[in-house]
Design goal:
The complex is a heterodimer of chains A (102) and B (393).
Chain A (H helix, E strand, L loop, with lengths): L22 E3 L13 E5 L9 H5 L5 E2 L6 E2 L9 H5 L5 E5 L1 H4 L1
Antiparallel strand pairs in A: 2-5, 3-4
Chain B lengths: L1 E6 H12 L3 E4 L6 H12 L6 E4 L3 H13 L4 E5 L1 H7 L3 H6 L5 E6 L13 H5 L6 E4 L3 H15 L8 E6 L7 E6 L2 H7 L16 E3 L8 H30 L7 E4 L6 E5 L3 H14 L4 E6 L1 E3 L3 H8 L4 E6 L9 H12 L5 E6 L9 H15 L7 E3 L7
Parallel strand pairs in B: 2-3, 2-4, 4-5, 5-7, 6-7, 11-12, 11-14, 14-15, 15-16
Antiparallel strand pairs in B: 1-8, 6-13, 10-12
The chains are: A alpha+beta (102), B alpha/beta (393).
């Protein structure tokens, strides 16, 4: 899965310009969503064998396999830890978010 | 045009067949059962070319209708009582997504104590669900409103689901002569649904049931409120168009009967208005200045029209077949608020009756009018009065 692209959203200035009903064009992601993450999964690329197990089990589809190495999209990863738990070669570890942001 | 001797449930089924929905998804519950059984037979014998989906619950019945509506097809479902409450989670999904689904609700009491008989506790529970709510008086109106409901719901400016309410047993299971309009005429009145802009399509993929947080949620709701309020003019227009074509006008939002010079007016909904008319005619013959206001729609609420009719009335009674425990009947609350907003201050009395199918007799209605006339002549009446009570309070 490739990283989703954010689309800029401009709040309509008139109520009539709001959509009728909570429906919009597909792939209309307007904001990042990862604020509640306490632990973040970190991939040790030297251990990763690219089996794609994490890619398959990630409930939010944030494992990006478009490059030569797997990459986690931290803009949308919720830190659930399923990937680290499921990794057979222990290439993913959960690290405290506070260690990254001070 | 054909005339048939049928019950209220049959009449709804006939109306649905004429409206040609693409899909019917429903779960049977007394006293709605006859309607969905009949529709199942219509699909079976080929007289209604629709997909009939047997679902495992009412929650699924409406979820299914939402799916149907989301691709721009015409959906019908029907339920009652506990079924409606079980379905409740999906009601604001349908209205928030602006899906023109039509649902028949056979008004029935809710548990506990358990009862299969009629009152309006079920639909009043869902007054805030965002659905347009119409209440019908007889089987003919049930058929006619099923057809009108689609026309109103599918109007571009409206795009809201409509709940057609009829009293359990008193209306669903009693037989009357009903005119069945010709299919060609109904087709003319109600053309095939046009794909609304928010429909799912292969060419223009969309996300359904999106989230809108604290930055835009309020505006979505305001838009829904504005459009629901504006549906009043569509409702009036559709009533006129229907009358012009089929010869039956219902008055749109409400019907005022003998209200012009009335000193005391009873506000009622549904089948009880039929009995009230008869009592009113008797009282008029006795020279009593009484009137009857049949509230047809509770959402949107006809604030302005109600006030216009009740402007010079001295006493207004509201008959509620439900109760909001700890307060009063909700129609009473709504009527009082509408009057106050319009600067009209008649004496108002709330009559609560018919719960769990308790009869409201002609004598009971006569007593309500008498209480209102006493109120109109300055004799203070109890604000909350129970109808046909069987023991001392």
């Amino acid at each position: 899965m490739n990283k989703p692209k954010l689309k800029k959203w401009q709040d309509p200035d008139e109520i009539s310009k709001f959509p009728m009903g909570a429906t919009c064009k597909s792939d209309n992601l307007t904001s990042i969503n990862a604020g509640w993450r306490t632990f973040r999964p970190v991939i040790d690329q030297s251990k990763c064998i690219n089996c794609l197990r994490c890619f398959l089990v990630c409930p939010d589809g944030v494992i990006d396999k478009s490059g030569s190495e797997l990459e986690i999209d931290y803009d949308f990863c919720k830190g659930c830890g399923v990937c680290a738990f499921e990794c057979k070669v222990k290439a993913i570890t959960m690290k405290k978010e506070s260690d990254f942001n001070g | 045009m054909v005339k048939k001797f049928i019950c209220g449930d049959d009449a709804v089924a006939e109306g649905v067949r004429l409206a040609r929905p693409h899909v019917i998804s429903a779960y049977p519950i007394t006293p709605q059962t006859v309607t969905v059984e009949k529709l199942s037979e219509f699909v079976e014998d080929g007289s209604l070319k629709a997909e009939y989906i047997h679902v495992e619950s009412e929650h699924s019945a409406l979820a299914c209708a939402i799916g149907v509506s989301s691709v721009g097809a015409r959906a019908f479902t029907a339920t009652s009582s506990q079924g409606l409450l079980y379905m409740a989670e999906n009601l604001p999904y349908a209205s928030g997504a602006r899906m023109p689904i039509v649902m028949m609700v056979a008004n029935r009491s809710i548990a506990l104590p358990w009862s299969i008989y009629g009152d309006q506790m079920d639909s009043m529970f869902l007054l805030n669900s965002g659905w347009i709510q119409v209440y019908v008086e007889d089987a003919q109106e049930a058929l006619d409103m099923t057809i009108q409901a689609y026309k109103i719901a599918e109007t571009r400016e409206v795009m809201l689901p409509v709940m057609v309410n009829l009293d359990g047993f008193v209306l669903t299971h009693t037989y009357e002569v009903v005119e069945i309009p010709a299919q060609e005429m109904v087709d003319n009145f109600l053309p095939t649904i046009k794909m609304p802009d928010n429909s799912m399509s292969m060419e223009d993929p969309k996300s359904l049931c999106i989230s809108a947080g604290n930055t835009t949620n309020l505006e979505f709701r305001i838009k829904q409120q504005i459009d629901t309020e504006n549906s009043v003019s569509v409702i009036e227009k559709v009533d006129k168009e229907f009358g012009d074509m089929f010869g039956r006008y219902y008055g749109g939002m409400l019907e005022a009967y003998q209200c012009e010079d009335a000193e005391a007016v009873l506000v009622a909904t549904g089948s009880i208005t039929g009995t009230s008319r008869i009592v009113l005619d008797e009282l008029r013959k006795e020279g009593k200045k009484v009137g009857l206001l049949k509230l047809r729609y509770l959402r949107p609420f006809p604030t302005a029209k109600l006030a216009e009719i009740l402007e010079n009335v001295k006493a207004v009674g509201v008959l509620d077949k439900s109760i909001s425990f700890g307060y009063e009947g909700s129609i009473f609350t709504n009527v009082n608020s509408a009057l106050l907003q319009s600067g009209i201050m008649p004496e108002t009395v709330n009559f609560i009756g018919g719960l769990g199918g308790r009869d409201i007799t002609k004598q009971n209605i006569r007593e309500m009018f008498e209480s209102l006339l006493a109120s109109a002549s300055g004799e203070k009446q109890q604000t909350l009065q129970y109808v046909n009570v069987r023991c001392k309070l």
